[in-house]
Design goal:
The chain has 237 residues and is α+β, with helices and mostly antiparallel strands. The protein folds into two domains: 82 residues, no CATH class; 141 residues, YojJ-like (1, CATH 3.40.1700.10. It is built from nine helices and seven strands; from the N terminus they run H-H-H-H-H-E-H-E-H-E-E-H-E-E-E-H. The protein has a seven-stranded mixed β-sheet with strand order 2-4-3-1-5-6-7, sandwiched between helices. Helix 2 packs antiparallel against helix 3 and helix 5 packs antiparallel against helix 9. The chain is elongated and about 70 Å long. The termini are far apart. The relative contact order is 0.12. Bound molecules: adenosine-5'-triphosphate (ATP). The site of adenosine-5'-triphosphate has 17 residues, from helix 8. Catalyzes the condensation of 2 ATP molecules into cyclic di-AMP (c-di-AMP), a second messenger used to regulate differing processes in different bacteria.
Length: 237
């Protein structure tokens, strides 16, 4: 059978598909799962090859059960994956008051006020905003510092920015299971970035460091300049 342009297209599409899947899972806890699955498949393949009937039967049946178990255990990742696939393309809905945000973050970091700030992009964050106090306020650095001042009723939880305005504060974000050893504020930032395309800023109360969670990954501590550059790039601001 001759090699046609269809075969070439097929190969290119399959390569692109596997590459995108790899990009989606690398750095997340699903990577360990993929490694485990490869080992499982290898053992199953060898059991079949060597004619080990019982082992091959057990592994074959466990695979069916395992598929259901995986759907349950990895429900947050699957949700994030489908959400990413279905996300509308095109210009991102944000006209963020970037400098005001950066000034606020710098002051929060200086004073070591713990803060969690999500920047909504294409994934609507209304369901998370509803868990806190909806404010719909004009964003200012002073408002951010006031919000996260320790002891105020709204300082607990995360704030959500939509199109440069402060949509809500005191919101509950989903906690990530991906990185053990992280505190809950950082896990909440990571968690929201796993299930949405939001950029989530965390200011650590302990160290004053500023980190950015994006696509299920948490950056190392960033300087204000690095943060500005990343936000400008991500938001096309
Ligand atoms: N699910 C959540 N959604 C939003 N905010 C949360 C959530 N869980 C915890 N937080 C916030 O994180 C705070 C606790 O932070 P904690 O000290 O445990 O985390 P951390 O990552 O070590 O941060 P830090 O470096 O600031 O100490 C809570 O007071 C609350 O404001």
């Amino acid at each position: 059978m001759a090699f046609t342009w269809r075969d070439l297209l097929d190969i290119l599409l399959v390569t692109a598909l596997f590459y995108s899947l790899w990009r989606l899972i690398v750095g997340t806890r699903a990577l360990n799962l993929v490694r485990g699955l490869l080992v499982y498949l290898l053992v199953w393949f060898l059991a079949n090859l060597l004619g080990l009937a019982t082992l091959s039967w057990i592994l074959g049946n466990a695979a069916t059960l395992g598929a259901f178990a995986l759907i349950v255990v990895f429900q947050p990742e699957l949700r994030g994956l489908l959400e990413r696939l279905g996300r509308p393309q095109g210009p991102r809905a944000t006209s963020l008051a970037l400098e005001e945000l950066l000034l606020g973050v710098a002051r929060l970091a200086e004073r070591r006020y713990g803060a969690l700030i999500a920047l909504e992009r294409r994934t609507p964050l209304g369901e998370y905003a509803a868990t806190g106090e909806v404010l719909e306020a004009r964003l200012s650095a002073r408002l951010l510092v006031t919000l996260f001042y320790p002891g105020t009723p709204l300082h607990d939880g995360g704030a959500i920015l939509r199109e440069g305005r402060l949509l809500a504060a005191g919101c509950l974000f989903p906690l990530s299971e991906a990185q053990v050893g992280l505190g809950t504020r950082h896990r909440a930032a990571l968690g929201l970035s796993e299930v949405s395309d939001a950029l989530v800023l965390v200011v650590s109360e302990e160290t004053g460091s500023v980190r950015l969670a994006e696509g299920g990954r948490l950056s190392p501590p960033l300087s204000l300049e690095a943060l500005r550059a990343r936000l400008k790039e991500a938001l096309h601001a």
